[in-house]
Amino acid sequence: MSAGVSTQQRQREMAAAVAAAAATSGAGRCRLSKIGASRRPPPARVRVAVRLRPFVDGTAGASDPPCVRGMDSCSLEIANWRNHQETLKYQFDAFYGERSTQQDIYAGSVQPILRHLLEGQNASVLAYGPTGAGKTHTMLGSPEQPGVIPRALMDLLQLTREEGAEGRPWALSVTMSYLEIYQEKVLDLLDSTSGDLVIREDCRGNILIPGLTQKPITSFADFERHFLPASRNRTVGATRLNQRSSRSHAVLLVKVDQRERLAPFRQREGKLYLIDLAGSEDNRRTGNKGLRLKESGAINASLFVLGKVVDALNQGLPRVPYRDSKLTRLLQDSLGGSAHSILIANIAPERHFYLDTVSALNFAARTKEVINRPFTNESLQPHVLGPVKLSQKELLGPPEAKKARGPEEEEIGSAEPMAASASASQKLSPLQKLSSMDPAMLERLLSLDRLLASQGSQGAPLLSTPKRERMVLMKTVEEKDLEIERLKMKQKELEAKVLAQKAEDSKEKENHCPTILRPLLHRTVTVAKPLKKAVVMPLQLIQEQAASPNAEIHILKNKGRKRKVESLDAPEPEEKAEDCWELQISPELLAHGRQKILDLLNEGSARDLRSLQRIGPKKAQLIVGWRELHGPFSQVEDLERVEGITGKQMESFLKANILGLAAGQRCGPS
Ligand code: ADP
Ligand code: MG
């Protein structure tokens, strides 16, 4: 097959269509995806075009005038069989008369929807009508008059080559699958050995056929290489089964995959269904028997369900009977789903087609009312999401992980490229997996989600479950890891400081006066004002401090207004137990205490915070909430800024904790 149309002309038309669409709708690469969109996608009615073929027998027409005729580019009329004085009038999105060319139909009704594939949206073209009315001619055509399929493929491949060229933000790839539904069996035309395939739906409502062959195609020659033998397969079958080719629904599925080359590494998938439906037939008229009758029964049954689906959608019924036939299950996306759909109803002018023509026109008129809601099918690339899937499975263990997997993941897992990337991600260490994430992207999505929620958005969250949960989990894991790393570094730093301090202390020991407070070497924390006194503290702690060779806490005995300084080294007189004790502490130690409090305030969980004196569950929550809202505390006094904590409370909190924490640090195992 060769498409005998001017490639350059079509490219120009295509480019113009894309530019016009982008200018009018603002649609481009920045569209929000369904998974990202919080609002219901805007409606797009199923478009309906009617094509009237010419008389196929050149001599007919003069003796047998047509029973249908066009009125203008959108409407037609047909004789009313109930009343010969009247005609029945129909209006559609487009009407193509007997003189219309293949290019007219393609450029007028099909080409404009192809651009949506590059936005990651789905599109469907369905040829409907009675047998012999020109469906196959419209969809496939002939080498001299190529139809919708070769024209669309040629344009799409050209467009994806341009859009996916080196240096452009997205890499594009195209694959094709080709199947037929024959007697309610889904048969893979690219793999004649395959049996009846199952149709499934993933959690996002996408229709999938596991095991269906997908051939990558980069050129029209590639497409022909796969498509022609598959079509010949059908023709062979047709000879054997007597016109089987027109006794089945033929579905060509073309997928356009886009992968963003830079962060946030989004991926989009647009699916194009090009469907040549089997013709409906009245068995009483055709006199079908045996196998033909059975075939016809299956065709009519599926077309009958198709009609019921359209009616249910138009009437807004709660149940749409998609599952009642394989055809409607497959078309779930195209009718009442997420695709930009166009139905081309083919009709014939001959009188003996009259009843079939009326029936096709009535079906077309009902289909015109069906509303679809196309959205961009966008997600993160598997190498971004893969690690988390894996870690979730690791967390859950094999049986739970299997249970937790949605149908989507099952399907994706079976597809070759996905399987390859999954195995690649399994080879990564957990740290590598985390480092392969893009936290900026996660943060952006999460904050956008929060923003939408704060604006009272009613729609699905931007990161809908389970993707959202994965994202949040990824972020938490990453943050925890960073925190652990930071704490380890800090611990090492403190260890080094303590060692240096010890060395320095032993050097200066000889000149050391026990009552004089010395500054710490390598002091880094100087935020605290030198607090000379701190009331309190458990006696046990004081004794521990006293036992410390480098004690920097000195007890001040308070006797009324008089104070007498005593070293802790001196034995404590028993009769002074009832006195009020105060402590004199080195400023450095206090600074350490403050720093520890500050660290806890900034890094501690609500539970950690509750371990502090004067902090109950409510205050702990208030602190955590403030921190999330305003960022880290720059000094402990900022605690006053937390709503519900007064200045007094802050001071008493400080007093109650500072010494304990400072002493804990100095005397602890570090
Ligand atoms: P269907 O697929 O609906 O059964 P076909 O596409 O096989 O019908 O068309 C039946 C016959 O009519 C074929 O010989 C085809 O070449 C011819 N035909 C259909 N439409 C046209 C048309 N628009 N112009 C010329 N011939 C046509
Ligand atoms: Mg046909």
UniProtKB/TrEMBL annotation:
Which compartments does it reside in?
Cytoplasm, Cytoskeleton; Nucleus
Query: Keywords for this entry?
Result: ATP-binding, Coiled coil, Cytoplasm, Cytoskeleton, DNA-binding, Isopeptide bond, Microtubule, Motor protein, Nucleotide-binding, Nucleus, Phosphoprotein, Ubl conjugation
Q: Which GO terms describe its cellular component?
A: chromatin; cytosol; microtubule; microtubule associated complex; mitotic spindle; nuclear speck
Q: Where is this region: Disordered?
A: 396-427
Superkingdom assignment: Eukaryota
> Which InterPro entries does the record match to this protein?
Hlx-hairpin-Hlx_DNA-bd_motif, Kinesin-like_fam, Kinesin_motor_CS, Kinesin_motor_dom, Kinesin_motor_dom_sf, P-loop_NTPase, RuvA_2-like
Just give the chief location class.
cytoplasm
- Positions contributing to ATP binding: 129-136
- A Pfam family assignment: HHH_3
GO molecular function ontology, one term from the record? microtubule motor activity
Give all residue intervals belonging to the Kinesin motor domain.
45-370
A Gene Ontology biological process term? mitotic metaphase chromosome alignment
Instruction: Indicate the segments annotated as coiled coil, or none if absent.
Output: 477-509
Which family does the record assign?
Belongs to the TRAFAC class myosin-kinesin ATPase superfamily. Kinesin family.
Any idea what job this protein has? Kinesin family member that is involved in spindle formation and the movements of chromosomes during mitosis and meiosis. Binds to microtubules and to DNA. Plays a role in congression of laterally attached chromosomes in NDC80-depleted cells.
| Protein's UniProt name | Kinesin-like protein
Species name: Macaca nemestrina
